[in-house]
Design brief:
heterodimer; A: about 325 residues; mainly alpha; MetI-like fold; 2 strands; globular; B: about 425 residues; alpha+beta; D-Maltodextrin-Binding Protein, domain 2; 2 domains; 8-stranded mixed β-sheet; 17 helices; about 45% helix; about 10% strand; transport (chain A); MetI-like_sf (chain A); transmembrane (chain A); cell membrane (chain A)
Chain lengths: ~325, ~425
């Protein structure tokens, strides 16, 4: 009270400083957020009710009400892209966690000595540039010249077990049945390390005493994993699954690069974000693209809520 | 003394003022290799227009067109002269971002007879505005490996007589050259057939009135899809997808392709990096079935927002209508001139070293004159995507031709509003 009245009395520069310095210090974030975060979101919302071809000038926008939304909802390609996205999200999302949890458990326990090395190795794909990744996987997946097909054909020519492997080369990125698994494989390879890191940090937060107490009570390794680790990992699972869910539904880079932006055979690799990108860039239909992004937002929001219901409670809640 | 000083000052001021009034700097926004053409043109241009300074602003192909889209939507930041690739013409023809060159003071229509016929319709919007001047073209050609053909006892004319003979002779070529493919992708044949045999007032996908031409009852589409499917089913193609895809590139580099359809400009890529080791083995022939098509082409336009339109037009006129400059451009990058007079230069009668000295440029020059003009529609990019998807579902066997074309027709009609 006293301080305030003195500063008010002082006025001038010093008072101004006292009063506004905190706001000035945090302003860079808010200014950047307003310009690059909030404004684009609001503009996008506005755009979703307009008909507009980028390149015709901002003045050419025309209000069309909900038409962009109904257009999308009646567009079979939009629904197909949603289906593709869902399949890819599950196909690439589930294995990430099924691999990451045991690996993190092993790293935290048995491999503790080499923890940093193993973590770094698993994390490497996550920080590798997508361009380098595409070069590597094209070399692996190529129909005529790919390493995978060369390996399969070598295995096919082995005596005895040769019959287990296909005689013909598989067109991984050119045949409808293989496009989605191929894309999912790249996504799994890229993000498993990231999830492992999340789970590792979760594991390290579990108090050692619990394991010691369980060991004293005669619990086996499996039992302590099942009854201590898994329940206590639940909060971190929630975070990891939420991130995978959002990432999976916004899948773009991997399918875009692996299918050269075409969506691949039978359009099986066309995700919703890719279709939105195509609607904006090659169809020049900014309003429809904006509406599509909001529809996807609704889907992501609903699924995140559902996930919140499933995993959202903390590990020990409901157990006491 | 004082009057002297003020006089000098006045003089300096007036010279400066005059210079400022006369010398103008214009910006040219281009992408490679077109930037080297503009650069090469500047000394000659400077001689004619000493008062116009030219600044070149070059961005990578995709970035250039993205930046141009942004500049045109916001009305700020475009160059005075902008290069536009053929694939983007329809997109920029919409709205009024680019100046209509057919109106005074440009009156570009007067140059029409001097250019290869199909270029002007390419640059003309459906409402009749001419938004760009053509500078180079890509007359289509069938490139073939003469050594592979010889091994199979097939002549080049066997390949290009008709599409049926292309497939029949192609089978022999592939049989005689194990591990080889006739063509990178079966879809290419469909694309060429779609571009030939169009009726008057027809575009690729829409007619002049905006009616959708794609459908199971249009023989052009049925034929295009059928031939492509025959090539795929005969296992003649490398399923490499679009040009410049990784599989496409690898197939070229390994020398596994017997033929490829492309613009004359492909020779430049082949000799520089794509098929360096096969110099003298590739040769050129007209496309199969007496068809003629074009692969790309570049244009120059003036954005409405430019403050120096007169100077910009002077440069565009120099770049496109000056025969010596068009020949210089051809020598710089190998891009075929859109100006007919330029193609009369003796250099076009010389052999092409990479093609074993074949005088292919004469053939390309004649092919260019036979290419049909296509009406452009603003929804061409949408229709193109949908038709390509339909073609792929036919080629991979998941749909039959009738179903795929019926669905494509529906999807395009939905968008055409």
């Amino acid at each position: 009270m006293l301080a305030r009245s003195t500063s008010a009395r002082r006025g001038g520069w010093s008072g101004f400083q006292r009063r506004y310095a905190p706001y000035i210090f945090i302003s860079p974030f808010f200014i950047l957020f307003l310009v690059f975060g909030l404004f684009p979101i609001l503009f996008n919302a506005y755009l979703s009710f307009q008909q507009w071809q980028p390149g015709t000038g901002l003045g050419a926008m025309k209000f069309v009400g909900l038409r962009n939304y109904t257009d999308n909802l009646t567009d079979p390609t939009f629904w197909q892209s949603l289906k593709n996205t869902a399949v890819l999200a599950v196909l690439s999302g589930l294995p990430q966690h099924l691999i990451a949890i045991p690996v993190a458990f092993a790293v935290a326990g048995v491999l503790r000595r080499m923890q940093h090395l193993v973590t770094a190795v698993y994390f490497l794909p996550y920080i590798t540039s997508i361009v380098a990744i595409s070069v590597i996987f094209f070399t692996l997946f190529s129909w005529q010249y790919g390493v995978i097909n060369a390996a399969l054909s070598a295995l096919h020519h082995l005596p005895l077990i040769g019959g287990l492997f296909p005689a013909d080369r598989i067109n991984w990125l050119g045949e409808k049945a293989y496009v989605q698994p191929a894309i999912a494989l790249v996504v799994i390879w890229r993000y498993t390390g990231w999830n492992m890191l999340l789970y590792l940090s979760g594991l390290q937060a579990i108090p050692k005493e619990l394991y010691e107490a369980a060991a004293v009570d005669g619990a086996t390794g499996w039992q302590s994993f099942r009854f201590i680790t898994l329940p206590l990992l639940r909060p971190i699972m929630f975070v990891a699954v939420t991130l995978s869910l959002i990432g999976g539904l916004q899948l773009f880079e991997e399918p875009f690069i692996l299918t050269n932006g075409t969506g691949g055979a039978g359009q099986a690799g066309l995700t919703t974000i890719m279709y939105m990108y195509r609607t904006y860039t090659s169809y020049s239909d900014a309003g429809v693209a904006a509406a599509m992004s909001w529809l996807l937002f609704v889907v992501i929001g609903a699924l995140t809520l559902l996930n919140n219901r499933l995993f959202g409670r903390s590990g020990l809640a409901g157990r006491d | 003394m004082r009057t002297m000083l003020s006089l000098t000052l006045a003089l300096t001021a007036s010279t400066l003022g005059m210079a400022a009034a006369q010398t103008k700097t214009i910006t040219v926004s281009v992408f490679p290799d077109l930037d080297s053409v503009v650069k090469a043109a500047l000394p000659g241009f400077k001689k004619l227009y000493p008062n116009i300074n030219v600044k070149i602003n070059s961005l990578a192909y995709a970035d250039h067109h993205t930046a141009l889209t942004t500049a045109l939507s916001t009305g700020k930041g475009a160059g005075d002269v902008v290069a536009v690739d053929f694939g983007y013409i329809a997109k920029f023809a919409e709205g009024n971002g680019l100046v209509d060159l057919s109106k005074a003071p440009y009156n570009a229509g007067q140059y029409r007879p001097q250019f290869v016929a199909y270029t002007f319709p390419q640059a003309t919007a459906p409402d009749g505005r001419m938004i760009a001047m053509p500078t180079d073209i890509g007359p289509g050609s069938m490139f073939y490996r003469s050594d592979m053909l010889k091994r199979a006892g097939v002549r080049a004319t066997d390949l290009n007589r008709s599409w049926e003979s292309y497939i029949a002779a192609g089978r022999k070529v592939v049989a005689a050259n194990p591990g080889s493919f006739l063509i990178p992708d079966a879809g290419e044949a469909a694309q060429i057939i779609l571009r030939t045999g169009l009726g008057a007032g027809e575009g690729l996908y829409f007619d002049r009135s905006g009616k959708v031409l794609v459908g199971p009852d249009n023989p052009r589409y049925v034929r295009a899809f059928t031939v492509a499917k025959q090539i795929r089913d005969a296992k003649l193609d490398a399923r490499a997808g679009a040009a410049f895809s990784p599989d496409w590139t690898t197939a070229f580099q390994k020398g596994n392709l017997a033929t490829e359809f492309s613009g004359a400009w492909l020779v430049g890529h082949m000799q520089n990096w794509l098929a360096k080791d096969y110099s003298g083995k590739w040769a050129a022939q007209n496309l199969p079935g007496n068809t003629y098509a074009s692969w790309g082409g570049s244009f120059y336009a003036i954005p409405q927002q430019s403050q120096n339109k007169a100077e910009a037009w002077a440069l565009i006129k120099y770049l496109t209508t000056n025969p010596a400059q068009q020949v210089l451009a051809f020598k710089t990058t190998g891009a075929f001139p859109a100006l007919r007079a330029a193609a009369g230069d003796p250099i076009f009668n010389e052999g092409v070293p990479y093609l074993g000295g074949q005088k292919a440029r004469i053939q390309w020059r004649q092919a260019a004159l036979k290419i049909q003009p296509l009406d452009v529609n603003r929804l061409d990019p949408v229709a193109e995507q949908i038709v390509n998807d339909a073609l792929n579902t036919v080629l991979d066997g998941s749909k039959d031709i009738r179903t795929a074309l019926t669905e494509a027709q529906l999807l395009i009609t939905r968008r055409a509003r």
